[in-house]
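Worked Example 4.2. Consider the chain below.
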Amino acid sequence: MLGNPSENGKVMDKITRIGVDLAKNLIQVHGVDSMERVVVRKALSRQKFLEWFANLAPCLVAMEACSAAHYWARKLRALGRP
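Applying the procedure from the previous section yields the following structure tokens:
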């Protein structure tokens, strides 16, 4: 994760929103905090994608609309994501 210090020196790294770009082999994720600062930007394999989300605090997820989006949305909902 990337952390950006705020004015008081603390790291604001709580992800509030994640954008997900689905692809055949790698899934790109881009997460920002409440101040719109980038907290995480990474490429994950399909196998690591759900594992990574399982260890993440609940947040808003924006996913591209494609044929695989419904599949991944069901998987994320199974993890308790809204």
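The chain has one domain: 1-68. The CA atoms of residues 3 and 13 lie 6 Å apart. Compare this with Example 4.1 before moving on.
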